[in-house]
Amino acid sequence: MSFLEYRVKFVPTGLRKVLHLNWPLIVLVTAVSAVGWLALYSIAGGRLDVWAGRQMQVFALGAVLMFIIAFVPIWFWRNMSLIAYVVSILLLLVVEFFGVTGMGAQRWLDIGGFRLQPSEMAKITLVMMLAAYYDWLDVKKTSRLFWVLIPVVLTVIPTVLVLMQPNLGTALILLMIGGTVMLLAGVSWWYFGAVISAVGATIWAVMASRGTDWQLLHDYQFRRIDTFLDPTSDPLGAGYNIIQAQIALGSGGWGGKGFMQGTQSRLNFLPEKHTDFIFTTLGEEFGFVGVFSLLVLYGLILLFCYVSAMQNKDRFSVLLILGIAANFFFYLAVNLSMVMGLAPVVGIPLPFLSYGGSAMLVLLVAFGLIQSAHVHRPR
Amino acid sequence: MRRSPKETEDAARGTHRRALLLGGGMTAMFAVLGARMHYLSVDQADQFKLLAEENRISIRLIPPARGVIHDRNGKVLAGNEQNYRVVITREDAGDVDAVLAKLAHIIPLTADDLDRTAKEMNRTSPFAPITVADRLSWEDLSKVALNAPSLPGVSPEVGLSRQYPRDTDFAHVLGYVGPVSERDLEALDSPDPLLRIPKFQIGKIGVERWLEDQLRGRAGTRRIEVNAVGRVMRELEREEGDPGSDVRLTINADVQNFVQARLGDESAAAVVMDVTNGDLIAIVSSPSFDPNLFVRGISHTDYNGLMENDHRPLANKTVQGVYPPGSTFKMITALAALEAGMITVNTSVRCPGYLEFGGRRFHCWKRAGHGAVDLEKSLSESCDVYYYDIAQRVGIEKIAEMGKRFGLGIRHDLPMSAIAEGIMPNRAWKQERQQEDWRIGDTINASIGQGYVLTSPLQLAVMTARIATGRAVVPRLVRSVDGKEVPVEEAPSIGISEEILRKIRSGMYAVMNAERGTAKSSRIADEALLMAGKTGTSQVRNITAAERARGVISNDQLPWNRRDHALFVGYAPYTNPRYAVSVVVEHGGGGSTAAAPVGRDAILSALTGGIPPLSAYPSSQRNRIESMLEKLPLRDAEGRAPDSSRA
């Protein structure tokens, strides 16, 4: 156990906690969300009731949750980690058998009209679980094989379940989150080197086998990989989204076409323009300046997470904050790379901007955890 | 378990170190994203802006109104009629079947209409309007407009379509328009994009085709904003095109109508031409057809009916039809001989009823013979032997040359389809065509416009005009385009001495006015309008020696398609020529009975600009002519045919 308990007397109590919240982070998160409302308002052709209104409601609900979570001491959440993890795994199993099929993948649980995506939840509970595990684990054992295998298994279980949905994007992010927390916890570089080499070698072997006698995949599977890696080869099919997205971004120019003037989004050339591809609307309407400002806001959110983590001496808190920040970053990086045509298209929303209840709620809950860790940090 | 502070602090330090490393990675990623964004929206902005515009903006063409074709006096021959139609838009209609059922109660819809509508609906986007019924009456359209509230998605529309008010009169001159075919497109180097508009119509034959460029006009454009599925969001810009140029023809619609009616059901052609400037006043081919049928899309039954008719209504016989000119060719033979100095105007030839040459007898039409024949008599009584004789002296080369000088055997350029060149044979022609030497017998046949000689009615009219004026008159059909007169130069002299021409003309005058003239019964009595002419009867079969021995059978006893062609050429007034006429009645029998009366009526019609005055006819014929004129199915002032006005 950490040394958190015996310095509790310095931790603020009651409503005084409000003063010790990480307010810059709250403001930044609200600001980014507000940009999202603007974008959703614009995409709906100047209508609040289509997407923006509901997104604001979800944000309000999430904000309340965030504050509640922030007021609850971080050690309570640490103790809840295992339970939260087990619950999310169970939900993933449930969604596997009873989930609502959407976009060709089993993703949602319909709970009284509210769509819950257990895969979104799993990202946070995985971070909590791993942070709690390393908090519990004797630091000296961190790099021993057995104690390395346990977090690997903890990561692989939800990853496999999400992959079966099939949701490749989220599964990859789960893997990266697991790896990141393990890296931060101090697992020896050798393990990472070995895994990366093994994965690299496998990919190389598969690709190199193409066209030879010992080909490891079928031809159609290779072709699928081709279109996955280079969607522009299929401009009206798989490549349509990515090409139209780049046209939208590029046609914005320096200053953009102006609020509500984006032709690509307004005239429906952009698919998924309110969810995964929302960034393109911003690029089209606000141009390079607008998009760059948004990147700065995102960067500041990450920076404040880092600052908060650096101020914290509690191992669980540090791993939790950085794990969540890494999760946030992966979302961002994968989504933006995809939209800008740097990475293949995988279904990953843009945090705080894309329309969608589950992702928004889960993110706000995660930032509530960061606030809790911040408020209740050992002093 | 309690850890030593040092141990935890070491661990925390390690974590912080790795966190910073990770932070560095994140910063690098941000830099990459920022750079990529810069590349897209700053470096490549222009290209992407262009692509976005291309996505968004679509240019639609506005078809221009086709130019109107008028006759020489401004009567409309081809116009654009308002075409009322009803369209339905699937997404606005809701329950399409119910709406169509309701519509069928209001206006007559055939099962075919409904079938086609349903088929088209499956093919097109829900927001694309589909034509349910076309060419509705104004009443039906009003009914639809009145019931609009109960017909969601249905709207009445107005378009333009080609209409020929004087339908059959101008079918051969104007031709017709029809939908653009792949063949039409292939024929053009860079087809006007307008032609790709669905249902756009293009001139197929006749004036409509040959003046297509002037009549079509220039398309207007509509720049519209479309969304990803092609729905029109709004109009950004509209540029009206230019309507096609109006064209004024040289034809007088009333004369055309009169001549068409006068030819009746005969398979015939008549051309009336102004000898002073070449203007074609009437150019009529009979029987005719209704070009409006082709515009609307002709039914198989109608089309087959036209194709199977042995009078060939679809052929424009005035320029496409070629016939042996028969005796109407005799002026050319005479001119060739006179010009070559082989004979003089006073040269006399004895006609015993035949000419024997190389053991073969060439008969004159008058078996008893004409006795001594000079030039004038040879024309007025149409003696064949005279021409057999002089043709041998002058030879085919000079005759052919003279024929071409007078417009035979050459293609006159008019905006009409399939203009025939005819044949003006000579030695070289026969050698090339049949790999045979020219024989004197061929010259003898050619001298009376038989054998290889073939001419079109248009060429005969040109020949007559040139004889009447002594100038190389060129026919023309278009008087002005877009208000600008087509200039006519005064035709150059044909280069034949006036003395010779006068003699030929007086021979032609005698044909119609002398006591024994072959067309005496078709003469004009009015002193001011006296007419000169020449009849012709051309054989379409060879009369065998056996047949001749039995006695030549009269035409009436032969099947229609083996009877002789009747021809006539003429001009009037004799003293101051104004109009030339040529008439060919296929299998009509004798030129003097079947063709000359038509020629006289046609030229009188041209001289008075309408129905010939009875006063111009010899008094003995007036009763007969009057009752004949009364029975003609002439159009009224608006161009409506008598039977259609009754309907």
From TrEMBL, chain A:
Peptidoglycan polymerase that is essential for cell wall elongation. The chain crosses the membrane at residues 20-44, 56-76, 82-100, 145-164, 171-192, 286-307, 319-346, 352-370. It comes from the Bacteria. Belongs to the SEDS family. MrdB/RodA subfamily. It is an enzyme of class 2 (transferase). It comes from Pseudotabrizicola sediminis. It is found in: Cell inner membrane; Membrane. It catalyses: [GlcNAc-(1->4)-Mur2Ac(oyl-L-Ala-gamma-D-Glu-L-Lys-D-Ala-D-Ala)](n)-di-trans,octa-cis-undecaprenyl diphosphate + beta-D-GlcNAc-(1->4)-Mur2Ac(oyl-L-Ala-gamma-D-Glu-L-Lys-D-Ala-D-Ala)-di-trans,octa-cis-undecaprenyl diphosphate = [GlcNAc-(1->4)-Mur2Ac(oyl-L-Ala-gamma-D-Glu-L-Lys-D-Ala-D-Ala)](n+1)-di-trans,octa-cis-undecaprenyl diphosphate + di-trans,octa-cis-undecaprenyl diphosphate + H(+). Its EC number is 2.4.99.28. The lineage of its organism: Bacteria, Pseudomonadati, Pseudomonadota, Alphaproteobacteria, Rhodobacterales. It is a multi-pass membrane protein. Keywords: Cell inner membrane, Cell membrane, Cell shape, Cell wall biogenesis/degradation, Glycosyltransferase, Membrane, Peptidoglycan synthesis, Transferase, Transmembrane, Transmembrane helix. Pathway: Cell wall biogenesis; peptidoglycan biosynthesis. NCBIfam families: rodA_shape. This is Peptidoglycan glycosyltransferase MrdB. PANTHER family: CELL CYCLE PROTEIN (PTHR30474), PEPTIDOGLYCAN GLYCOSYLTRANSFERASE MRDB (PTHR30474:SF1). InterPro entries: Cell_cycle_FtsW-rel_CS, FtsW/RodA, RodA/MrdB.
TrEMBL record, chain B:
It is a single-pass membrane protein. The keyword Transmembrane helix applies. The chain crosses the membrane at residues 20-39. Residues 62-236 form the Penicillin-binding protein dimerisation domain. Gene3D superfamilies: DD-peptidase/beta-lactamase superfamily, Penicillin-binding protein 2a (Domain 2), Penicillin-binding protein 2a, domain 3. Keywords: Carboxypeptidase, Cell inner membrane, Cell membrane, Cell shape, Cell wall biogenesis/degradation, Hydrolase, Membrane, Peptidoglycan synthesis, Protease, Transmembrane, Transmembrane helix. This is Penicillin-binding protein 2. It comes from Pseudotabrizicola sediminis. The lineage of its organism: Bacteria, Pseudomonadati, Pseudomonadota, Alphaproteobacteria, Rhodobacterales. The gene is mrdA.
